[in-house]
Design goal:
14 strands, alpha/beta
């Protein structure tokens, strides 16, 4: 397990020390508002419970929200949500980093301050032309949400921005996390990061599917990335979309196929075994072990599928497990924004200390339950 002296909000005191996680993601500032009805959503033609990138015709949403609604600012973006919450859960005992692109503008300043408050370290690149990415999170009655983003500068992270300092962080990390949103516009960087960490002993390599539309539009890219990843995460709709586009499902029975079967098929997609691992293991090798698991030695892909109230399905190519969800009273649900990101933070917090799969999942579920009782993707103060 990593150890090392950490300087709260700045750089590591020991620049050669271990790192909990390095995450490549869209650096966004969330503007969270609560609404009493769906009039704003209908006005801009937004989906009622989904996440989209806005069109030119929908850009007026941002100014209207700032002018007419009480806005709560939260450091957003899927990967940043996970790292923020993870940093809290592990009490900043080991440094956590996010890598992305922003601008020198007010939104960028707010974003950096919010992340520093949670002890998250950043390796941001700054764009001179586009603004810092922003996302309006419209919380509807009942806690469901609509996310509408203009990712701005985040889209322009390119291979030239992937510098030696970032490679060094990957070499010191316990978890490398590449967000599907980020990979969809910066595929060369995502592939370079995973390639850098692929044969490095002691690193868990994670790819998130992020959104159904990414699985439909970028399925070939995701399959290439997954060939270097031993952990893939997403929700049921995302897994079904990827499996369908990859030709893994029979059209006649696709809707009837169990999510466990779909997860096993995604887990069985081509996987390039690292050549420099000292000793690799399959998940079955860990079953019943009382010792800490070394997740970085997992030499098969594990698929982790969040299925809302139905629980979580985990699968390798040959086995699958269902972990039921604990029911939460509807009146306690305030905001489901980032529930999947929170789940992953809880999961990672236990993976870092070598806990078995059931403990990782249970902690992820507990973390998500706590977060959805708050406004915005956050833990209680």
């Amino acid at each position: 397990m990593p150890s090392g002296s950490i300087n709260g909000h700045g750089r590591d005191e020991d620049s050669s020390g271990p790192v909990a996680i390095v995450a490549f993601g869209n650096a966004l500032l969330d503007m969270s508002i609560s609404v009493k009805d769906d009039s704003l959503i209908h006005k801009y033609g937004l989906p009622c419970d989904a996440q989209i990138e806005v069109t030119n015709e929908q850009q007026g949403l941002f100014s209207e929200v700032i002018q007419n609604y009480p806005v709560e600012y939260v450091a957003g973006g899927s990967a940043q949500n996970t790292v923020r919450i993870l940093s809290r859960l592990i009490k900043n005992q080991w440094p956590s980093y996010v890598i992305g692109k922003i601008a020198h503008d007010p939104a960028g300043i707010i974003l950096q301050k919010l992340l520093a408050q949670d002890g998250v370290r950043t390796r941001y690149v700054f764009d001179e032309k586009l603004p810092t990415g922003c996302c309006v999170a419209i919380v509807r009655p009942g806690g469901t949400r609509c996310l509408a983003a203009n990712i701005g500068a985040a889209r322009e992270f390119n291979k030239e921005n992937f510098v030696a300092d970032m490679m060094d962080l990957i070499d010191r990390a316990r978890i490398l996390y590449v967000e599907g949103f980020f990979a969809s516009h910066s595929p060369d960087v995502a592939m370079a990061a995973l390639s850098r960490g692929h044969s490095r002993e002691g690193l868990v390599r994670v790819v998130s599917l992020s959104a159904q539309y990414i699985c439909l539009q970028s399925h070939s890219l995701l399959r290439r990335l997954l060939s270097y990843a031993n952990l893939v995460v997403g929700n049921e709709d995302e897994f079904r979309a990827l499996a369908g586009r990859a030709g893994l499902l029979l059209v006649s029975s696709a809707e009837c196929e169990s999510i466990a079967s779909v997860a096993r098929k995604v887990a069985a997609l081509d996987y390039i075994s690292p050549v420099n691992q000292f000793k690799s293991c399959r998940l079955s090798d860990f079953q019943g072990s009382t010792e800490a698991w070394d997740w970085s030695k997992l030499n098969e892909r594990l698929a982790v599928v969040t299925c809302g109230a139905s629980g979580v399905v985990c699968a390798t190519r040959s086995e699958s497990w269902l972990f039921p969800a604990e029911k939460l009273q509807p009146h306690l649900v305030k905001d489901t924004t980032g529930a999947g990101d929170a789940f992953l933070a809880g999961f990672f917090s236990q993976l870092l200390v070598g806990r078995p799969l059931d403990v990782c999942v249970a902690t992820g579920q507990q973390t998500a339950r706590i977060v959805i009782t708050q406004t915005g993707c956050r833990l209680p103060v």
